[in-house]
Amino acid sequence: MINGIKKNIKILILGSKGQLGQSLKASINYPTDSYKKKIENLRDLKSLYDKIKSNKFDIIINCIAFTNVNLAEKEKKLAYFTNSILPMHLSRFCKKNNIFFIHFSTDYVFNGKKINKYKETDKRLPVNYYGVTKLMGEKFIKQSKCNYIIFRVSALYSKKKKNNFLNKIHLINQLKKPFPIVSNQIVTPSSVELVAEIVNKTLSVISFKEKEIYHVAPKGSTSWYNFAKLYFAKKNIKNYSFPVSTKDLNFDVKRPSNTSLNSLKIEKKIKFRFKNYSYYLNRDFL
Fold it and tell me: pLDDT-derived band of residue 6, with 50, 70 and 90 as boundaries?
């Protein structure tokens, strides 16, 4: 045992095809397996449970999420099942079978009205349905009384996946035509490699008795527009984007104006000091 965790723990990663799941599978220092079948309803859980029982996993890491904020308003049933009902059943299963549960939530559980960075204990008041479903997922996990860690993350990006902010704006910018980027929405951009690094470090110090929420995000915060400016400057690429407010874009779905996260709690837990988000942009993407 190392700090309450066995050296030979077995971990199952759900959602291993996504940008975070891929990074976790590549970096975790323990034996891992993944489950690649789609889970779109409760019937799909039976084969998953059979796999877990037959392989005697110690930890389940759930990276499955419905993250399209706009589409969540239209596909409410699927968003609710994926972000709320699925973690509810997984956490109940973990409680029944003495399995440790790791889950990822979002900065969008907050309403964005706070001036400073959000702490884990701040009041959660989501302003859109995506945020509501992620908040319900957190509540259901707590209600299950399983042993768990919920990592709240913000503005994830990955070099390996095309469907994220940096890769999208890079492609649009290649058209060499002016295009808008929101300048009044403040976030803490986080590479999936950084999140995977923190999960790995956390696994080395926690016990199976945890029931905690941790924020995982680097130092600093920025607007989406300024993050884009930084990216293009570091790449030495002419920037064709221009700043606009969320009002100018007439978003159908409301978004919180500031969701930057305070990560001091996890820093103390694992004895780690985050660097500024620009450092991880250089390290993990450029």
Answer: low
